[in-house]
User: Which sequence fits this backbone?
């Protein structure tokens, strides 16, 4: 992590708080990475090349294919901010594999009322139930498992 942090403007590891039973029978709150092995970082394009060289054989950087070559996959500020808010605000979620949750079939929505007001995501069905999915494109998806009334959802164009 320090290796990356020296070359980045910002790093982010999504964390979750879990309750664990201690050896003396007390319940203790502990933090752990929400998605093991994932570190998000913000840097300019020159620094990405330096980080890619530093992390060769140590870590994987998500890429997308362009016409000529593979480039590190950027995540929009809007998408990252939405993901960060969602993870820090809600404790009623579960991690989903982007390949399992077919995001292309859902409608993009914004929550316009209730405790999740302001969140954006995709409505999709998982095991027959509707969920709001907040995804970081190509990296991960988080399912909100709380119920959101349909009246609280506004379809986005």
Assistant:
């Amino acid at each position: 992590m320090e290796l990356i942090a020296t070359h980045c403007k910002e790093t982010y590891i999504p964390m979750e708080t879990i309750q664990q039973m201690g050896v003396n029978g007390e319940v203790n709150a502990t933090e752990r990475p929400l998605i093991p092995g994932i570190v998000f970082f913000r840097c300019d394009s020159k620094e990405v090349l330096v980080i890619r060289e530093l992390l060769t054989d140590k870590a994987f950087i998500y890429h997308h294919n362009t016409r000529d070559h593979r480039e590190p996959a950027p995540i929009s500020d809007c998408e990252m901010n939405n993901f960060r808010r969602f993870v820090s605000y809600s404790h009623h979620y579960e991690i989903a594999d982007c390949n399992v949750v077919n995001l292309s079939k859902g409608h993009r929505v914004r929550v316009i009322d209730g405790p999740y007001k302001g969140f954006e995501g995709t409505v999709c069905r998982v095991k027959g139930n509707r969920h709001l999915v907040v995804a970081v494109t190509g990296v991960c998806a988080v399912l909100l498992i709380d119920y959101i009334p349909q009246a609280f959802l506004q379809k986005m164009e």
Observations:
- The chain has a mean pLDDT of 76.
- The first helix runs from residue 2 to 5.
- The CA atoms of residues 20 and 28 lie 5 Å apart.
